[in-house]
Amino acid sequence: MKAVLIQDFGDVDQLYIGEVDAPELIQNSIRVKVVATALNRADTLQRKGFYPPPPGASPVLGLEMAGEVIEVGEKVTKWNKGDRVCGLLAGGGYAEQVVIHEDVAMSIPEGMSYTDAAGIPEVFLTAFQALSYLAKLQPAEQILIHAGASGVGTAAIQLAKAMGAGKVIVSASKGKHQICKDLGADDTIDYASQNFQEEVAKLTDGVGVDVIIDFLAAAYFQKNINSLNFDGRMIMLALMGGMQLDNVNIGNILRKRIRIIGSTLRARTIDYKIGLTKDFSNFAMHRFADGSLKPVIDSIYNWNNVQEAHSHMEANKNKGKIILTID
Ligand SMILES: NC(=O)c1ccc[n+]([C@@H]2O[C@H](COP(=O)([O-])OP(=O)(O)OC[C@H]3O[C@@H](n4cnc5c(N)ncnc54)[C@H](OP(=O)(O)O)[C@@H]3O)[C@@H](O)[C@H]2O)c1
């Protein structure tokens, strides 16, 4: 089959479409003809050689896909040829075919396109896991979501609202504020021209937020712990602002009983992903069907233009998901 491959670790010009063996079908898995996949930051890091796939995962890029079932394993009970599915992958999505455990595939809601569906799995499952499993977000709690217009951010805004959060505050660059508001954010902070700690204090009457979804790690650590309420939870999903802390006063962690929880979804066990997929599907799929949740699609590229798609993400130009169609 054809797949996007990496010549040598490095810049976008190292990406090309080449030939690899199709993955083997196993008993409880389905083979899917991929119609669309989507970009994630992890793909750009993997391309550069900074994020190797976990053991056993395909070395081909791509953490999610949407497509049509073309073959089912002997023990599969849930799916038939022709079914429309999307799902999370540990790798291999930038390819004509993937093989996926039947219980991590999700049915695409009727009427939803493959390109929309490809924008759901990675960011919505990440955001659902962060809010529900890790932060245990409670109704009426206040939340700060950094990188609000990112793929994960746009999913988190919608899910937080659907879970009954109180005030949803996001930080994002200024040109991305409107989309965050359209998705349900109550307040937006331009992190470049405003001090988010001061803004959060104003917006919460000095109380702070109960939950922070963070991607900036070291760069925001001090302001994050200063922006949390008592019993606040900070969920760290990325290290975009570096991982070395310098001169940080950690007193508030103790005083305010703050919990700091890190997580990466890709390396979780298959059993964990099956449980997460089931809980997420129960919570979200009817909401996608009635339009109260929606994948946020920034742009759609044919996979022949995968280099441009990666450049678009690395220039931080996207609001929501960048989709690749496979033909
Ligand atoms: N831990 C997990 O399980 C997990 C799962 C999925 C994704 N992730 C991580 O979550 C992050 C977001 O992923 P995504 O696919 O949603 O990304 P994305 O759509 O590419 O969005 C990332 C956005 O973050 C903002 N940003 C980038 N660098 C920044 C910086 N130094 N300071 C402030 N803001 C910055 C930019 O928006 P502005 O223009 O608003 O700055 C950028 O568009 C990535 O780091 C990804 O690796 C983690």
Can you summarize this structure?
With 327 residues, this protein is an alpha/beta fold. Helix content is 29%, strand content 26%. It is globular, with a radius of gyration of 20 Å.
Report on the structure:
With 327 residues, the chain is an alpha/beta fold. The chain contains ten helices and 15 strands. The strands form three sheets. Strands 3, 4, 5, 6, 7, 14 and 15 form a seven-stranded mixed sheet that branches. The protein has a six-stranded parallel sheet with strand order 10-9-8-11-12-13, sandwiched between helices. A two-stranded antiparallel ribbon has the order 1-2. Helix 6 packs parallel to helix 7. The model has no long low-confidence stretch (mean pLDDT 97). The structure holds NADP nicotinamide-adenine-dinucleotide phosphate (NAP).
List the helices and strands and how they pair.
Layout: E1 2-6, E2 15-19, E3 29-38, H1 41-48, E4 64-72, E5 84-88, E6 97-101, E7 105-107, H2 114-117, H3 121-134, E8 143-145, H4 151-162, E9 168-172, H5 177-182, E10 187-190, H6 196-203, E11 209-214, H7 218-227, E12 228-236, H8 251-255, E13 259-262, H9 270-289, E14 297-302, H10 306-314, E15 321-325
Parallel strand pairs: 8-9, 8-11, 9-10, 11-12, 12-13, 14-15
Antiparallel strand pairs: 1-2, 3-4, 3-6, 3-15, 4-5, 5-7
Helix pairs in contact: 3-4, 6-7
